[in-house]
Structure formats: structure tokens, C-alpha cells
């Protein structure tokens, strides 16, 4: 007899079931996927916030904005997921599929990668 990975109750039904209910499945996965430390949680929150800001300002897939506008919304330039250096010498900073490139006079080019 198999038991639920979350609560230990007996499992009834399909042979490959791991949980006795959707509630136990959700509770188990929430525990597994939660951020393990406050430090990790804070970084993930900053990444999510930066991503949200870029998404709000870049509705067309390519646009321009100012540093002041990004900062007024709470954008933190220290947090990004990856950097792309192009052959032409440009550097793009990305948060998942949303990115930006520094231009002259405190302007930024916002771009979105096709996934």
C-alpha cells in the first residue's frame, strides 16, 4: 500500500499516484519550490519587480525610456538575469525575455526577446 508523500495517508486509485488529494499535492510542491532563505526571496522579488517594470514600459516589444522613469518606478539596475554582448559591441541586460541597453544622455532602449 502506497502512502501520500505529504501526509502519509494511504493512497487509493491509480498505481502511479503520489498524493491522496490535490491539497496534499499543492502543499508538497509549495514546500519544495519555496525560496529557502530570506536572501533568496529578496533577490527573486527584485527580479520580479524589475521584470514587471520593463514589461509595463515596453508594450510594443521595442521602446525607449529614461533612467529617471525607470528609477521612479523602483527599478534596481543591480539585478538582472543575464547579459548579452552583440557583435557590434552593444551590451544588453536581460530579465528573462525583457531587456535594456544603455544609450546616451540617460536614455535606455527596451527590447523583448522572441521566445
Question: What does this protein look like?
Answer:
This protein has helices at 22-33, 38-57, 67-72; strands at 62-66, 82-85, 91-95, 98-102, 107-112. It has a five-stranded antiparallel β-sheet with strand order 1-5-4-3-2. It is an alpha+beta fold and 115 residues long.
Please describe the structure with a list of short key phrases separated by commas or semicolons:
DUF2116 family Zn-ribbon domain-containing protein; alpha+beta; 22% strand
Would you summarize the structure shown here?
With 115 residues, the protein is of the alpha+beta class.
Order of helices and strands: HHEHEEEE
The largest sheet, given as strand count, sense and whether it forms a barrel, is: 5 strands, antiparallel
Q: State which percent range the strand residues make up.
A: 15-25%
What's the β-strand tally? 5
- Round the Cα radius of gyration to an integer and report it: 21 Å
Tally of individual helices: 3
Helix content: 25-40%
Task: Outline the fold blueprint.
Layout: H1 22-33, H2 38-57, E1 62-66, H3 67-72, E2 82-85, E3 91-95, E4 98-102, E5 107-112
Antiparallel strand pairs: 1-5, 2-3, 3-4, 4-5
Amino acid at each position: 500500500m502506497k502512502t501520500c508523500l505529504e501526509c502519509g495517508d494511504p493512497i487509493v486509485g491509480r498505481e502511479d499516484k503520489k498524493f491522496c488529494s490535490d491539497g496534499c499535492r499543492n502543499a508538497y510542491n509549495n514546500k519544495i519550490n519555496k525560496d529557502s532563505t530570506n536572501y533568496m526571496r529578496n533577490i527573486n522579488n527584485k527580479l520580479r519587480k524589475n521584470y514587471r517594470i520593463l514589461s509595463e514600459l515596453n508594450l510594443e516589444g521595442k521602446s525607449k525610456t529614461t533612467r529617471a522613469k525607470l528609477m521612479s518606478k523602483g527599478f534596481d539596475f543591480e539585478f538582472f538575469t543575464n547579459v548579452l554582448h552583440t557583435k557590434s559591441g552593444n551590451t544588453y541586460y536581460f530579465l528573462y525575455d525583457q531587456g535594456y541597453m544603455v544609450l546616451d544622455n540617460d536614455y535606455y532602449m527596451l527590447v523583448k526577446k522572441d521566445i
